[in-house]
């Protein structure tokens, strides 16, 4: 007989779920099989256990060819004081890999810019992005129904009503650091956690207001990408702007939470926000081993990888974001890509200014709604204290 603990470890790591359509499974399978291939060949990655992976596939808008995988990464760690890449969450790394890929294409042929601008970009992440997409409030997700269509389905995001701004429905969040190096941050963390206990932020996430110098959650980063494009701001003077056409998620997919987090919460303020088609895939990244509720093992991952089409995979240390084994700067870092692009003719310069202005106004708007959330949160806590005091 198996003990309860043994049964628990035998259970599949991922809960079963419905796929939205065959297209979502095609995207997920392409990423997962490449990941298994990379992991199978690399001893360092074999040790890392359960993780999150993200991939980007491209498709020419006109042709009927299959989407092609051009970028892939794994990772769940981050450190705002890393000397190398700071944010090592898979979806953030894969966006870097995608920037590297389009930079390499332009380095090969500058006339490729027009083709790149017309690409359809399909983004896959094996688990819902951290932050707002993981807050299970303000809506009830329905079970996904299988849609029998071979190609990318249409998806209209329903009108979003930001009725709970003061509860943090639109607010920014940051990634909690696993090891705080300064004692002031530790103290601050204690205070925040105690005060905001009743506001049910997902684990691993802190309110932006307390830590504006930390790294934004992946939900907030997706929101910004859907407003200004996937091209990194320092690179927009050389690379064309590209937007996400579809976003496929594996674990923890919940349509109303995902659409709120990655695009719809900005729709009233920025009507031009791009709404990617949201898909769920039942194809599992991890077929067994770990308990369903346990998910990714954040503390066991010493290495992450990043890969883009035409390049070798790079392994990075999770602890500092530098390249294994010599602690050098990754060729996926913005500095290196910028350096490589130096002799390339810039794209019209106003694209750069547009993006930077937009990014600033986006951030200011989000900070103001985050502030409203805090004023509300603190008044709620005061009320709660009063109530408890009277009861005693
Ligand atoms: Zn994340
Ligand atoms: Zn939307």
TrEMBL record:
One of its GO terms (cellular component) is cytoplasm. Its EC number is 3.5.4.4. PROSITE patterns: A_DEAMIN_EDITASE (PS50141). InterPro entries: A_deamin. GO terms for biological process: adenosine to inosine editing; RNA processing. One of its GO terms (molecular function) is double-stranded RNA binding. This is tRNA-specific adenosine deaminase 1. It comes from Brachionus plicatilis. Residues 85-321 form the A to I editase domain. It is an enzyme of class 3 (hydrolase). The chain crosses the membrane at residues 365-384. The keyword Transmembrane applies. Keywords: Hydrolase, Membrane, Transmembrane, Transmembrane helix.
């Amino acid at each position: 007989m198996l003990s309860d603990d043994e049964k628990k470890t035998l259970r599949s790591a991922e809960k079963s779920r419905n796929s939205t359509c065959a297209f979502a499974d095609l995207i997920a399978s392409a990423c997962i099989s490449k990941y298994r291939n990379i992991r199978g060949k690399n001893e360092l990655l074999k040790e890392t256990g359960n993780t999150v992976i993200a991939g980007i596939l491209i498709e020419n808008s006109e042709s009927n060819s299959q989407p092609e995988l051009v970028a892939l990464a794994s990772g769940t760690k981050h450190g705002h004081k890393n000397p190398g890449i700071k944010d090592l969450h898979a979806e953030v790394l894969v966006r870097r890999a995608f920037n590297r890929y389009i930079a390499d294409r332009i380095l090969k042929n500058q006339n490729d810019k027009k083709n790149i601008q017309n690409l359809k970009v399909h983004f896959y992440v094996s688990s819902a992005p951290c932050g707002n997409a993981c807050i299970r409030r303000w809506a009830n997700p329905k079970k996904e129904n299988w849609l029998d269509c071979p190609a990318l389905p249409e998806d209209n995001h329903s009108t979003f009503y930001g009725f709970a701004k003061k509860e943090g429905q639109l607010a920014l969040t940051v990634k909690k650091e696993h090891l705080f190096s300064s004692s002031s941050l530790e103290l601050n963390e204690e205070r925040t956690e105690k005060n905001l206990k009743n506001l049910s932020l997902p684990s691993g996430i802190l309110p932006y207001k307390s830590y504006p110098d930390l790294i934004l959650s992946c939900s907030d980063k997706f929101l910004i990408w859907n407003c200004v494009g996937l091209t990194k701001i320092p690179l927009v003077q050389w690379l064309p702007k590209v937007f996400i056409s579809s976003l496929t998620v594996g674990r923890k997919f919940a349509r109303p939470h995902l659409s709120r987090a990655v695009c719809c919460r900005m729709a009233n303020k920025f009507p031009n926000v791009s709404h990617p088609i949201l898909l769920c895939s039942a194809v599992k990244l991890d077929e067994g081993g770990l308990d369903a509720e346990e998910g990714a093992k954040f503390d066991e991952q010493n290495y992450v990888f990043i890969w883009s089409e035409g390049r070798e995979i790079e392994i990075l240390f999770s602890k500092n974001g530098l390249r294994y084994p010599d602690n050098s700067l990754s060729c996926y870092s913005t500095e290196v890509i910028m350096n490589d692009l130096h002799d390339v003719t810039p794209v019209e310069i106003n694209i750069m200014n547009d993006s930077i202005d937009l990014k600033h106004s986006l951030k200011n708007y989000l900070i103001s709604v985050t502030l409203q959330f805090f004023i509300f949160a603190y008044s709620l806590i005061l009320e709660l204290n009063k109530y408890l005091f009277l009861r005693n």
